[in-house]
Amino acid sequence: RSGQGRLVQGMVWSDPTTKKGIHENVSRSVGVLFGPDIASDFLKRSEKKYLIRSHEVAEKGTTVIDCGDGRKVITVFSHASYPNGMGNNLGAIVNLDKEGNCYAVEFSDSDLTKKPSMDTSDPLLDTLRTTITSNKFELERTFARKTSTEIIGFTKWGEIMGEVLELRDVPWITLIPSLVPDDCRLEGDRIDWRSFLQTYVSSTVIGGKASCVNSEILH
């Protein structure tokens, strides 16, 4: 193989391991296994915090190897029940927030079959939904910081949405029937903000179907 060919194969097929050093990748017969010390050296020289990669099944959707000093190798696998719906693994995506924290959003195969209860025909509403999805974790932190309960009034909900998304001129209360699923709206003009945010999952990742998933920060 040419040097360029080996480089490409190494980039595509090499896998992380918890064992220090570089080792033969016996299971693939191509590429290498690289330890946390190798990854840490690469991340330090690259001035990066995370090495996020895929191409390897993770039973819980993600696998994290701590490289020290806050640096991590994160494997993310977005195909739930791999292969072809026969496996038992979760799928996942990861989200990086403004502070550099990395969150995993995990979902099962059954999550992807749930149908959204909201109309999806308006392109302007779709743009707002995409904006909400992109800022989901910042919204979650702000709601938690500014409220003492997960049940809040329409007015407070609209104020926080406008503040975090920097869209204060949007008529949030008017748009509640289009943006907040029925089962997240309660009597007395109130919203369960946590359940509301759980219905927003990136449509480019799991086919545009809103579903309740589990999210957690990757420590």
Tags for this model:
alpha+beta, 3-stranded mixed β-sheet, 8 helices, elongated
Can you describe this structure?
With 219 residues, this protein is an alpha+beta fold. Helices cover 34% and strands 22% of the residues. The protein contains 8 helices and 12 strands. It has helices at 3-13, 36-46, 123-134, 136-146, 154-165, 172-179, 193-198, 203-206; strands at residues 15-16, 22-24, 32-34, 50-53, 62-68, 71-76, 91-96, 102-107, 151-153, 185-186, 190-192, 214-217. Strand 5 (62-68) and strand 6 form a beta hairpin. Helix 4 packs across helix 5 (154-165). The chain is elongated, with a radius of gyration of 21 Å. Mean pLDDT is 84; it is low at 202-214.
SS-based class = alpha+beta
Biggest sheet details: 3 strands, mixed
Kindly estimate the percentage of residues that lie in beta strands according to DSSP. Answer: 15-25%
**Helix percentage range:** 25-40%
Uncertain spans: 202-214
- The 3D shape can be described as elongated
Please provide the ordered H/E string of secondary-structure elements.
HEEEHEEEEEHHEHHEEHHE
- Calculate the mean pLDDT score and round it: 84
Radius of gyration: 21 Å
Distance N terminus to C terminus?
Answer: 39 Å
Spatially, the strands of the biggest sheet line up as 1-3-2
How many separate helices?
8
Number of strands: 12
Summed up:
With 219 residues, the chain is an alpha+beta fold. The chain contains 8 helices and 12 strands.
